Amino acid sequence: MQIFLEKRFNTSSWGRILVLGVAFLLVLFISWLFFLIAGIEPMTAFQIVGEEIFLTKYGWQDLLVKMTPLMFTGLAVALAAQMRQWNIGAEGQFHMGTFAMTWIALHLDGKLPYGVLIVLMLIMAMVGGGLWGSIPGFLKARFGVNEIITSLLLNYVAVAWIDHLLFGPWRDPGTNNFPITKEFSEAAQLPSFGNTTIHAGLILAFFVVVIISWFLWKTRLGFQIRLTGDNPDASRYAGVNIRTLTILIFAVSGAIAGLAGFSEVAGIHYRLQQNISIGYGYTGIIVAWLAKNHPLGVVLSAFFMSIVFVSAEVLQIEYGLPISVVFLYQGIILFTILGSDIFTEYRLRITGNWLSQRHSKTGN
Amino acid sequence: MEFFIQILIAAVGMGTPLLFATLGGVISERAGVINLGMEGLMLVGALVAFVVMLNTGNYFYAVASAAIISGMVSMIHGVVCLMLRANQIASGLALTFFGTGLSGFFGDKLTGETVEPLIRIPIPVLNAIPVLGPVLFNQDLLVYFSYVCVVLLWWMLFKTRLGLNIRSMGEAPEVCDSLGLSVLGYRFFAVVGGGMFVGIGGAYFPLALTPFWVDGITAGRGWIAVALVIFAFWNPIKALGGAYLFGIALALELRLQILGVEISPYFLKMLPYVLTILVLTLVTIRHNRLGIQVMPAALGNVFFRGEKH
Q1: CB-CB under 8 Å, A325 with B101
Q2: The pTM is what?
Q3: ipTM value > 0.85
């Protein structure tokens, strides 16, 4: 008798759904452990979190608000991953997006009519994020520098730059020395739906999902990107300019991450301040991984990760747990998904009998 | 001159956590496993060391438990990317998330608590050497321990059978497998052993550098260590030089601030990260120009008997 893993020809989609279910149960189980450690009655906590999120208007509203930046950052990471490039720098591109748009808003607020200013801010956010993103892209394309390390380290540089502005030249003197800029006028704010906090950024996010899907599957450039991701050698023989494509993909990826910054600042805070991103850029990596880098999948996985964020927020308010539990959950979710992928790609086979064991060694 | 020596003394201190973490990365990557979870592991090591120090007041217990717990946490990485054959990059990132969350969750109530930092113990005769004496031989015990580790690891990797086997796992796992060596076993051993060193690197923060707890105490140094592994050509001795070079950048950041140099402190904060990117780029260009293959050939490959990659 022999037990071994056999590679499946197609990944099983039922297996994938099962895996997500198992991941969810594992998260619940580990949460249960952590609640016990923190001295919280687990069942009550689950009940409170569930009710706060799904049974209140604010819960649903918050889910959609938190989902918005995650869709952008998830798309940013997924797009680069379509070409097998790791953009771990969405966090920094997010911040450079907020920098560029705030710069234009601080200079031109009050001088331009409504529509013009907000569009300019949107473009600036894309330029800021895009330029920041193209740095690791350029270094990778030109010199072959590991893009994971460079894109990640630039996050720390971008955050320090924002801190410099907020504690220095951009600090609003009228606000008791808090590290915040002055509030934008209405001309620089995205409209909200009714009296909710859900803002036009969500629509923009869906719009970008459609655009990126179209780009990847209906354009020549999109085809080249996917081809390069699947088989760089074939793509090179076919005459694809991989270097240019690498820089381009990082620039576009960065621009999308910059849009996340735009949507948060113009849609919610109406000013630049610290901690606008609570790790949205990093979470984009998990959103993309869960979605298997498919733009439409990003919508679902962004919603899923949004539940994690809002749960953490409820726990923070109700029990005073630190918001960093978000990262803990993210780690557990990613580990579970990664660890269980093997079961969607392989199947367990038990063959033969004891007598033929010696002769069937070739199978594994 | 006095200022210069002061910088170098601080540089060794700032470089020590980087050195431990880089050594951990070297072991793991020599066996063919990328560990991008170093930042998370350092945070776990820092948290454990701080908590144990707070409760027992014993440095040895603090360092040992940091090493053991970090080793245990890196077992998750080992299981997921070796036994369950997941992508090593993604698994490493998950480890960073996990460690960041863990230290944030349990460290939340510790903010503001302080411990007694390690004291400097001069080594009698060596301490009298000009410049080198005060810089290298008037440090704390963990720094001396790091010297020992560098030499021992270099000897282990390049002069012993065990080291040869570990290095072979990173170059040609199929060959090792056909020779009857357990690829998964050696790789798992290297991941966990490496993780322990990374944890000790994290422990150095609360025990010597910042003897109080702040959230995210390692401030991205784990990622600098990831780059240092490449910079050090996967060699423990070169890791020493690399770590101290970055130690100088970090020490300058502190000293210039104290001297009141007219630079925004946030620009000084960027310095080590920008320097890492620059150095990594230069090293990569040099690798390309020389056409040398120092990187372990099978780094990042999933090994599965009977399947080609």
Answers
A1: yes
A2: 0.90
A3: yes
